[in-house]
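ok so heres the complex, two chains, lmk if somethin looks off
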Amino acid sequence: MNQSESLTKHWVSIAATDAVPLREGRAVQIAGHEIAVFNLGNRFLAIESKCPHRGGPLADGIISGNSVVCPLHAWKIDLVSGEVLNQTAAPQCIKTFATRVEDGVLSLEILLASTVAANFSPDCLASVSQGSYLTRNASGEV
Amino acid sequence: MNRLVVIGNGMAGVACLEQILKHAPKFDITVFGEETHVNYNRILLSSVLAGEKSSDDIVLNSVDWYEKNRIRLRLGIRITEIDPVAKTVTGDDGSVTPFDKLFIATGSIPLIPPMEGTKKEGVYVFRNLDDTRALLDRAGKGVKAAVIGGGLLGLEAARGLQVQGCEVTVVHLMDALMERQLDLTGGGYLKSKMECLGVRVLLERSTTAILGNGKVEGIAFKDGSSIEADLVVIAAGIRPNVELARKAGLQVNRGIVVNDFMETSHPDIFAVGECVEHNSTCYGLVAPLLEQGKILAATITGNKGTRFEGSVSAAKLKIMGVDVFSAGDFSDKAPGTDVVRYEDPALGIYKKLTLRDGKLCGAILVGDTADSHRYMDWLRSREDLTPHRRQLLFPAPSEDAGLDVASMPDTKVVCGCVGVTKGAIIDAIHSKGVNTLAQLKECTRASTGCGSCTEHCQQLLKAVVPEFQEESERILCKCLSYSEEKLRDIVRGQRIFSVQQVLDIYGNGLGCEICKPALSYMMDVVWCGDHDEDRSARYINDRVHANIQKDGTFSVVPRMRGGVTSAKELRRIADVAEKYKVPMVKVTGSQRIDLLGVKKSDLPKIWADLGMPSGQAYTKGVRMVKTCVGTDFCRFGVQDSTKAGIELERRLENLFTPAKVKMGAVGCPRNCAEATVKDIGLVGQEGAWQVVVGGAAGKKVRKADLLITVESSEEALQAATLFFQYYRENANFLERTYDFIERLGIGRVRRETVYAPLAVQQGLRERLRKSKRLARDAWLEGDEPRHPTQFVQIKPIEKVLQ
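and the predicted structre for the whole thing:
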């Protein structure tokens, strides 16, 4: 991605909500991000799936309240703020992503280059046709 | 000698007798009890129903006690008439007993609201030990039970029945549970706690009929609806049992009217307990009844002086995990009432205090009753709380842990149920050598009633006993304030089958990376695998049955029992390594082969291609049995260690353990497969096997302790598997055998395994057998994933192309 381009936020449909089991996480790749999505029962939360410590896959961590615990060395990361909670070193933070659920479909809010965004209506991503920058997975399945 | 007759052999009557025996004039005493049991602790009937206590555990006065005190005990006899002029009582056995003094302690009887069908088979009340036994006989898995009444007794009965396996519905007339003790909000919190336990609650339902043809089939409500039921418990309240007194012409309102000295309207007849009405109030809780007993004892023995001045009413729900306390007048309607309130819906905690003129009038506590003693003291003392206004709900933490008990006067009653003072407890510690809570209970009976004073008793022990050692209970984590041992009891006793249920009821509802895997294991071991496994509570390794590596890939170690393989197996492993471009193939220290750097999504395919079972190299479970070549080829081998090792692995494979279990079997003391530094080792000798346990060669190096020496291979396997199950059931999660054995001592381990009574050994074996029956090779899940996205990344519905 060209860093000089301006970035704008867009909702991207990910999957039916039941693709992420209760109190577990799953990884999803979108626009170069590896994102971990967690099902907390009453809401979904999403963060970058890479532990700031040694890059552990956070999607594979155990949920502890509103945090996830990295499966490699048990760093604890707040799913709402992205903050590392249990390390005394300099405060660190990872990216978080807004989530929403509509008609049983989970969407994430992603920053996309404006040239990408210019080609579709952000409110109705699912209707974007082939050939644009957004395409629908043929089967519509996960 | 004056003849004293007592009608009623319950807690109030006998407690009064105990006091009478302390006074000087001796009576010739006869006690009539309608029940056939000696005096027992009625408050604990719900614990009997819930299976936490046996009926023997709740006996307060055994037959010996009556004999020793020369009390004539007549059980199973109902007194049908009191003649106040001739001064005799008549029993339903035709006996006529004369008295000089009589006291009535007939207690109360269940209130049966007007409805049809209460005589049907399967309709019960819950008042005495016989009712409890009848309910225990009828209750069972899948039995549908309806409890009419959502008060203290109804809820306790409901929970007890549910623990016995019933599907329970509580039907309540009012719009909130325990409305006499709680406000609407408190009732709401209680309702969700009960529902969390799995008890269904129906509010504002007026029961009109019990349905069924001779036998209960359901109950019908005024609104026309109905529910199915196989058994019905009516717990709609109690009323004083006053018929005898009324017939004898004594003054009776709701209860038998007594004055401050417990005297009735007849000079030689007295009354005490739930059947009594004092100052227009009837009491149904233990503490005031015991107080009445003391006063009556003084009156009847001619030591009349102290008066009964009423008592603050207080109630505590006795359901483990559902803490409810209520005392005094909690209504906020009266003018000039200040209400202090705290709520945390996520934790299920609700506290409400009412104050008038700076004094506490009432308290409601749901979800956290730790401070109930403080509020009871304030209610009794009528102390001006203005200086404490900032600390009403959250007391300032005390710098000095002993201050709380040090500030109590010796006369202060610590145990309200049994009436034991601080002075009496200290006296028992000094004069009777009491050191532990159990001894204190036995010696003084303190803390044997509702149990809410346990904390204070413990603080006193700690402050007074010279060499008091605090029980080395380690709390699992901050989500649940219980030790693992206590939690195992809770899970077993309260029949809890899922991690989330434990967290919801006994914890903060959330859980963390420490407690969730520990509870997962606990469910597995307590229920021998017959539980609701919650994958989200387990480590990633246990969700995908492989060991996560530093780069997020996984390692695959197939089972290779005893380290013995074949050309065919090795060929398949080689093919898999090539086909999936496995970056590293390595022989492990456990005589197995490790395929490292495998992608999560390849795992199911690799397992299928390997056609070998999981080696459990990723989990807290049975790893392997490392063996030497034993007698087959070795010049020195004196025992067939290969065969024994493979058999041991086969008997234990696929089971989970508190921490990993590595085993070894060697055919001679040269110890080539290092059995003496394994969790369990078999060491072959000439004509014998040594079974050794608790060895380690990891962060710590420890030579294993000898468990037992036996002659045959089968005996060696039996001893090893016995220890294995004992370790599974008693170790804390993540506690390796070597720490476990150092904590317990090998002597105790021997006593409780290989030297344990046969029945104990059989129990261990039976539970191991049950677990083994339900254990399966985890890699079979490759063909039938638990969840569609278990092994794969989510592919977004919409793709962003960049």
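quick notes: DSSP finds one helix and eleven strands in chain A. thats all i got rn
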